[in-house]
From TrEMBL, chain A:
Pfam families, alphabetized: BPD_transp_2
Subcellular location: Cell inner membrane
Protein name: Branched-chain amino acid transport system permease protein
UniProt key word Electron transport: no
An example molecular function term from Gene Ontology annotations: L-leucine transmembrane transporter activity
From TrEMBL, chain B:
Keyword Signal recorded: yes
Top-level taxon of the source organism: Bacteria
GO BP annotations listed: amino acid transport
Protein name listed in UniProt: Amino acid/amide ABC transporter substrate-binding protein, HAAT family (TC 3.A.1.4.-)
Length: 347, 372
């Protein structure tokens, strides 16, 4: 930090780009401080805690979707723009799963949720696999921009397909899990619905399972090897095409988990639901360092909490402005993202 | 039935594509523009159902100047850019002589400029933003009231009936939503109530928990929302989930039973209040028409009858003027009144209804709304 500051001071005046960077970051930073009216009991405030919970639930869902972006980028260096729509499809699948299980007379909540999760993850995984096979694999050795364009095309196809087959209306499911925990803190209170609690627990569980797979299993080792050097991994006998397919399936499965959780929490979705949340999750992936798994989770949570706290303390009109200013500021100081590794040019 | 319709449509498309308008001139073409897809497709369906039934009934009774009405469906998805595109399509390639639409004020305002330039009469069943008729266009009408009237009714109700001193105002940053919220705020301020919170949310998002927490800490007794049901549903649900018991009041943007879907159950919309024109289903004028809708298994809720009445108004104007010229029809409509399914209606020089009657409705535990 100290050396960075010294360097900026030294280069001040000589390099206009760095000067602009400095001015921009200073003004952003001062704006942030200026906008936050600090209160004396900021930390123990019930409102602050409630906003923290709001941010954590939203952020953990961002994180789950961001994993799909970050893994795909890590392994083949492309941004899968269709990923937000994979999440959208999974929201529909979750509703279909819940409807099917209720239709067959199952009523206990844990069973329905478990069954729906399995069903949604399996089918969404198939979507992930099929999308990769159809849209990206044939373009594996073409220019870098070609799969990007086919990803945008895939995103439009998924949206229109769902719009035509499911209708353009708002869809929804009735509330599954009623009730809430209420903690009294000082004069205020914090209310945590069971659904939110379930979201936080389930996303942590999902992330832990994923971390375990990547760190300790054979599949995980293959993924990491392919990420580090695809050609070398191939030479050593790894079927990298299959590994890439697995990565798409894993990314889709995480989006499916997010889809079930969001559908439970908000109860409503439409064919366009993947757009905004996809952009936010992509932002989270970049914030945390694209290509890094813990980075995606961290980025999601930071983004969610920052949005919630900013809306709470300042103004919700400008929460996106704040979230993206935060992104810009972090990018200025760490262009590789919070936990990302700096790009090394391969010779 | 649908096959005939499709063939007719195909023939129409072919004839207009070839520049042979001989077939097209045999019919009175009216565009029905609204959000047929997207988050607000429920309102587009209300428009289309109402207009279709009206065209069918008018054609059965002899049509317009001896010719049949033919409707052209146009989808703007409540997006201003797409609204201008479909408006140009209706004018240039479909060659409509009148338009029923659009729904979102942010779509109606730019689209009506296209109709005005082409000299086509247009009537919106549901755009309530004051600006729609305030821009000096000759042939722009509306079948509904204005947000400045709606805001007065809502503001007075909050002060007089709910006796609230702390009111939080939330809007969706859109022409309609923010315009309505501002109109209500103006009336509240005039009555001496200063809002405790005035903030916008983003259309298309589903998580408003942070805003809800803020509403809770503001201690508001009433939350007024200017916006549409796609956001109103999650908002009211998240309020109840966080233990906010404040009354939820909104406007005519939530008059569809899809509000219950977006809120995740009737238990959340129970007690929600909204302003809307006096329920046309209670008037004797529309009894026969309403029976027809119900016989087809469709409840003519929200703007369905407004759309029906809009087609009636256009047909009456074309009949009265004896031509489909936009200027002449508009002139006739401003001089005469029309017997519609919603009662006798007449318009002032701006194109606003001379009488519009906003009243308060309440959603019940059964997920239906009733006039209070």
């Amino acid at each position: 930090m100290e050396t960075a500051r010294g360097m900026r001071l030294r280069l001040l005046g000589t390099c206009p780009v760095r000067f602009i960077r400095l001015v921009l970051s200073c003004s952003l930073a001062s704006l942030t401080v200026h906008l936050f009216p600090l209160r004396e009991n900021l930390i123990v405030d019930g409102i602050f805690l409630q906003q923290l919970i709001n941010g954590l639930t939203l952020g953990s869902v961002y994180g789950l979707i961001a994993i799909g972006y970050t893994m795909v980028y890590g392994i083949i260096g492309m941004i899968n723009f269709a990923h937000g729509d994979v999440y959208m499809v999974s929201a529909y699948l979750a509703a279909i799963g819940i409807a099917l299980l209720s239709f067959f007379g199952f009523e206990s909540f844990p069973f329905i949720i478990f069954g729906t999760l399995l069903f949604t993850i399996a089918v969404t995984g198939m979507y992930g696999y099929a999308i990769e096979r159809i849209a990206y694999k044939p373009l594996r050795n073409s220019t870098r921009l070609a799969p990007l364009i086919s990803a945008i095309g895939m995103s439009l196809i998924l949206q229109n397909y769902v719009q035509i087959s499911q209708g353009a209306r708002q869809q929804g499911i009735p509330t599954m899990l009623d009730g809430a925990l209420r903690f009294h803190i000082g004069e205020g209170f914090v209310q945590l619905t069971y659904t939110k609690l379930f979201i936080i627990v389930a996303s942590i569980a999902g992330m832990l399972i994923l971390t375990y797979i990547i760190k300790y299993t054979r599949l995980g080792r293959m993924c990491r090897a392919t990420q580090q050097d695809r050609k070398m991994a191939q030479i050593l006998g790894i079927n990298t095409d299959r590994v890439i397919s697995y990565v798409f399936v894993i990314g889709a499965a995480m989006a499916a988990l997010a889809g079930v959780l969001i559908t439970l929490n908000y109860g409503t979705f439409d064919f366009n639901a993947g757009f905004i949340i996809g952009i936010k999750a992509f932002t989270a992936a970049v914030l945390g360092g694209i290509g890094s798994l813990p980075g995606a989770m961290l980025g999601g949570i930071i983004l969610g909490v920052a949005e919630a706290q900013f809306s709470g303390l300042v103004n919700s009109d400008f929460k996106d402005v704040f979230a993206f200013s935060l992104l810009v500021t972090i990018m200025i100081f760490r262009p590789q993202g919070l936990l990302g590794k700096p790009q090394v040019a391969k010779v | 039935m649908s096959k005939i319709h499709r063939n007719g449509f195909l023939a129409l498309a072919v004839s207009s594509a070839l520049g042979l308008s001989s077939f097209a001139q045999a019919d009175v073409l009216i565009g029905v523009a609204g959000p047929m897809t997207g988050a607000n497709a429920a309102f587009g369906e209300q428009f289309w159902r109402g207009a279709s039934q009206a065209a069918e009934d008018i054609n059965a009774a002899g049509g317009v100047n001896g010719e049949k009405i033919k409707l052209i469906r146009a989808d703007d998805a409540c997006e201003p850019k797409q609204a201008v595109a479909v408006a140009n399509r209706l004018v240039d390639s479909d060659k409509v002589v009148g338009v029923v639409g659009h729904f979102c004020s942010s779509s109606t305002i730019p689209a009506s400029e296209v109709y005005d330039e082409a000299g086509i009469i247009s009537i919106t069943p549901g755009s309530t933003n004051p600006q729609v008729t305030e821009r000096g266009f000759n042939a722009e009408f509306r079948m509904c009231g204005r947000d400045d009237q709606q805001g007065i009714v809502a503001g007075d109700y909050i002060v007089d009936q709910l006796k609230a001193q702390k009111v939080a105002i939330i809007h969706d940053k859109d022409t309609y939503g923010q315009g309505l919220a501002d109109a209500t705020r103006a009336q509240l301020n005039k009555r001496g109530v200063k809002e405790v919170l005035y903030e916008g949310l983003t259309r298309g998002e589903k998580d408003f928990n942070a805003l809800v927490t803020k509403v809770r800490s503001s201690g508001a007794e009433v939350v007024y929302f200017g916006g549409l049901h796609a956001e109103a549903g999650p908002l009211v649900r998240q309020m109840r989930e966080q233990g906010v018991t404040a009354k939820f009041v909104s406007g005519d943007g939530i008059v569809t039973d899809e509000l219950v879907t977006t809120a995740g159950g009737a238990q959340y919309v129970n007690g929600v209040l909204m302003t809307f024109g006096a329920d046309p289903r209670l008037l004797p004028d529309g009894k026969a028409v309403i029976e027809k809708f119900r016989a087809n298994g469709y409840e003519p809720e929200g703007y369905t009858l407004y759309s029906y009445a809009s087609v009636q108004a256009l047909a009456a104007a074309f009949n009265g003027a004896g031509s489909t010229d936009g200027e002449e029809a508009a002139e006739w409509l401003k001089q005469n009144s029309v017997k519609t399914v919603m009662g006798e209606k007449s318009w002032d020089q701006k194109g606003d209804l001379k009488v519009s009657d906003y009243v308060m409705y309440q959603w019940g535990p059964d997920g239906k709304y009733k006039q209070l």
